[in-house]
Specification:
The protein has helices at 15-27, 38-42, 64-73, 89-98, 110-122; strands at 7-11, 31-35, 51-56, 80-84, 102-105. By secondary structure, it is of the alpha/beta class.
């Protein structure tokens, strides 16, 4: 029996980022769901099967870090890769302490994101920043 394809959930308020990541991730065989806000994602039923979140740190309303904290407080512990156009050391530290697999600053290389998603799905956390 084959293992189901992993679902990658992208939550980013930038439509062009969502479209680009969706194309990239689908091209390598992932199922992809995109959401423009944390609230939109939270309205969705929990995902069954392997998945990884790709969350933008800064979004109107609830940002990626706050979304992740909401999920974990509710018992939903999912592997996460944070992405941002506004990376600073305190934010990176908060993300990694929250359990992030990786933290990527936009613009990032496609392969860098794919590697981070692969690490997230395999349960590996990046050892250094």
């Amino acid at each position: 029996m084959t293992e189901p394809a992993a679902t990658i959930v992208v939550v980013d308020d930038d439509a062009s980022v969502r479209r680009g990541l969706e194309r990239l991730l689908r091209a390598v065989g992932y199922l992809v769901e995109t959401y423009e806000s944390a609230a939109q994602f939270l309205a969705r039923a929990p995902i069954a099967g392997p998945c990884c979140l790709v969350l933008d740190v800064r979004m109107p309303g609830q940002g990626g870090l706050e979304l992740y904290q909401t999920l974990t407080a509710g018992g939903r512990h999912l592997p996460v890769v944070f992405i941002t156009g506004h990376g600073d050391i305190p934010t990176v530290v908060r993300a990694m302490r929250a359990g992030a697999v990786d933290f990527l600053t936009k613009p990032f290389d496609d392969q860098e994101l794919l590697d981070a998603v692969d690490q997230a799905l395999s349960g590996k956390r990046r050892s250094s920043q």
